[in-house]
Amino acid sequence: MVLSALSMAPERTLRMSELAQYAGSTLSRLSNVVIRLDKRGWVQRRPDPSDGRATLATLTDDGMGKVTAAAPHHVDAVRRLVFDPLTKVQQRQLGAISQRILGALDAPCPTDWAPPGANELPGRG
User: The pTM is what?
Assistant: First the structure.
């Protein structure tokens, strides 16, 4: 997810906080992942020049090469595991469901929103 998100970002660069959202991760967990990717030469970290408190992650040319090399295998796996088992009708239904989800993602999120069941967690509500 990290390499993919960076590959699609302008200048292949995102703030770590934004990248954590794409990856569905906490900032501290993402930081550990990016450190490992940095050691492999796939990502570089640097302070954000517009805000020294933030850190930017940039996909390197080697990292982009890794994404490009993995793409055909990823597409084949998704086709085999997700689409091939479905009938044509189910594939169309999946498309319609995906469009609804994407539309909801584009809608503004209420400030008091919480995932279903969040208020049932210990110490809440």
Answer: 0.68
